[in-house]
Amino acid sequence: MSNDDDLDNVFKALANPVRRRLLDAMKDGPRTTGQLCEAESSLDRCTVMQHLKALETADLIIVRREGRERWNHLNAMPIKAVHDRWIAPYARGAVAMLADLKERVEG
């Protein structure tokens, strides 16, 4: 994650519930495109492929071809970059405020 454009792509990809479900389906291991299409059976294959392309553009998945199969692997590094940049600093501040509040209440 080198720049704001990369982070923008990650946020855009994560903003869609279908894409989040596809990522959830890959959290325990890689899945073929066919398996992901079965998991999202209410969508046609072309639509699932468009969502997978958005995830690949955001570098949230890594795609490997093995013969006729297309394996989709979760890439957690962009999610970690979002955590490190946006979540961790705010969480530290919130934890410090809660600790201070606890100390004041308990005296």
TrEMBL record:
GO terms for molecular function: DNA-binding transcription factor activity. Gene3D superfamilies: Winged helix-like DNA-binding domain superfamily/Winged helix DNA-binding domain. Residues 9-83 form the HTH arsR-type domain. This is Regulatory protein ArsR. The lineage of its organism: Bacteria, Pseudomonadati, Pseudomonadota, Alphaproteobacteria, Caulobacterales.
